[in-house]
Amino acid sequence: MDHAAHATDLIHAAGTGVALTLAAIPPDLMGGLGFMIGEHMALGIVGEEMMVRVGPDGYQRALRRVHAREMDFTGRSIKGFVFVEPAGTRTKRSLASWVAPAVAFAKSLQ
Q: Domain tally for the chain?
């Protein structure tokens, strides 16, 4: 299964009621697909994983969840962002549990 295509379909189907704009993330940053709210990234697909922006207050809580890990593609942890393995986004419900906090945080930045 193409995880990026599956996750993209699920994100659109998650029913957030918020307009998410799909944008390409330049390869020099991390490559992949990003989902923006206004000018702020909320979610992304990088390789087989979903990148979720939970913000500094939600970071430790997100790391304690199954299938989540630090976002460390540069060799350093990026606080406020986590990667979620494909198993953590297989169902609409599990995906929505990641999409909701990402959308809420990105909306708070506007």
A: 1
What 3-state DSSP class applies to 48?
coil
**Residue 71, domain CATH:** 3.90.1150.30
pLDDT tens-digit series, residues 64-101:
999 999 998 678 888 999 999 999 988 888 888 998 89
pLDDT at 24 over 70: no
3-state secondary structure of 92: helix
Q: What is the 3-state secondary structure (H, E, C) of 50-66?
A: EEEECHHHHHHHHHCCC
Domain that holds residue 87: 3-108
Q: What are the φ and ψ backbone dihedral angles of 61, each rounded to 5 degrees?
A: -60, -45
From residue 67, how far is each of 19, 86, 89, 98, 108 by CA, in Å? 26, 8, 9, 11, 25
